[in-house]
């Protein structure tokens, strides 16, 4: 199963936006995230619809935060990303009539649902402000992505 990095990429971009001195272009963020600017715009569209970021057009334009990091939880970003799968699918449907497969699938499915619920509850308690303060506390210097001269 291919991993889904939307949540990680969005968190990365949002934290860089907080420390950028000016709006970040889709091109600059694409370079930072090692992806395509179209992917960046698609990723950020859910956050824009939720009111967490906005884009400014024209010279000097780009993406900026429109909410304080303390007002955005990991759960908010997860939901804005389209609620990507948190875990891989652990069940099989090789022989749905097999009693062993039924028992295994029922247990695995219930356990994954419980784990997802616990993870989402934790996501709701952690803000991007918490992450930003953790970064600052550890003394790691965040370098904003390069901006092209315009």
Description:
One of its GO terms (cellular component) is cytosol. This is Rrf2 family transcriptional regulator. Helices cover about 55% and strands about 5% of the residues. The chain has about 150 residues and is mostly helical. It has a domain at about 5-85 and about 130-135: Winged helix-like DNA-binding domain superfamily/Winged helix DNA-binding domain (Arc Repressor Mutant, subunit A). Strands 1-2 form a two-stranded antiparallel ribbon.
Question: What's the topology here?
Answer:
Layout: H1 6-19, H2 26-33, H3 37-49, E1 53-56, E2 62-65, H4 74-80, H5 99-125, H6 128-137
Antiparallel strand pairs: 1-2
Q: What order do the strands of the largest sheet run in, or round the barrel if closed?
A: 1-2
- CATH T-level fold name of the domain at 6-86 and 128-137: Arc Repressor Mutant, subunit A
Strand % is 5-15%
Number of strands: 2
Element order: H for helix, E for strand: HHHEEHHH
Structural class: mainly alpha
Can I get a quick summary?
This protein has 150 residues and is mainly alpha-helical. The protein has helices at 6-19, 26-33, 37-49, 74-80, 99-125, 128-137, and strands at 53-56, 62-65.
Question: Which structural traits does this protein have?
Answer:
single chain, 150 residues, mainly alpha, Arc Repressor Mutant, subunit A, two-stranded antiparallel ribbon
């Amino acid at each position: 199963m291919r991993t889904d990095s939307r949540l990680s990429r969005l968190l990365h971009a949002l934290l860089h936006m907080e420390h950028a001195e000016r709006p970040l272009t889709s091109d600059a963020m694409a370079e930072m995230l090692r992806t395509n600017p179209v992917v960046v715009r698609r990723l950020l569209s859910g956050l824009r619809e939720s009111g967490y970021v906005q884009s400014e057009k024209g010279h000097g334009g780009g993406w900026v935060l429109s909410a304080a990091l303390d007002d955005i939880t990991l759960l908010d970003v997860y939901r804005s990303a389209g609620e990507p799968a948190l875990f891989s699918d652990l069940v099989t449907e090789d022989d749905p009539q097999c009693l062993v497969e039924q028992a295994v699938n029922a247990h695995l499915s219930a356990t994954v649902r419980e784990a997802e619920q616990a993870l989402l509850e934790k996501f709701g308690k952690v803000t991007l402000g918490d992450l930003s303060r953790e970064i600052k506390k550890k003394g790691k210097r965040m370098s904003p992505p390069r901006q092209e001269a315009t």
